[in-house]
Amino acid sequence: MKKCLLVLMLCIASFSAVRAESFEEINWGEKLAFYLPNRVLDALDTFTVNLGVGATAEARLMFTRYCDIGAGVSASTFKAFKDFNRQYGAGVEEGWYWSFIFVGEEEYRVTEATALLDKYVECRAGVPSPLMRAYDLVTGPRDFWAIGGSLGLLLDGNLYIHPLEFLDFALGFFFIDIKKDDLTFDQF
Q: Which residues in the chain show pLDDT less than 50?
């Protein structure tokens, strides 16, 4: 039953993110030319690993932002990021947060980031919403639906998996790109 509910939740979330695309608009030559690189990139998108060092203390266990338990504080943590929405690089993470199940508060920011890392600030109190800019499925720097955790005391590590990225990866084998992040000729 739990697996059925999870699959149903993922399907509803993914179909709400799909933009209408007619059959005539698909460039099949482009899809075939970038088929293998796009599958590799989609596979790499399914997880996040961030490692840092600095004045930090945190412990978090998360099964989406609706079921998030933990707390943390960071004065200035220098991190190497392999993050959501193809963010790769280094930056400084600062802020604090606490959360218990689906309520919490946070003031969190990434500053002094390299070019492929989104600099942003997130301040919130109460129940998080997947409609916030930070959680935008296509352009947001954070994944609302992530599952994983963080642990750190002076050395900090985050490990998350992204269920919607798994769905994007699986559907990519059938030329369906729900995240709209596949490589195209226009990008070169």
A: 8, 16-23
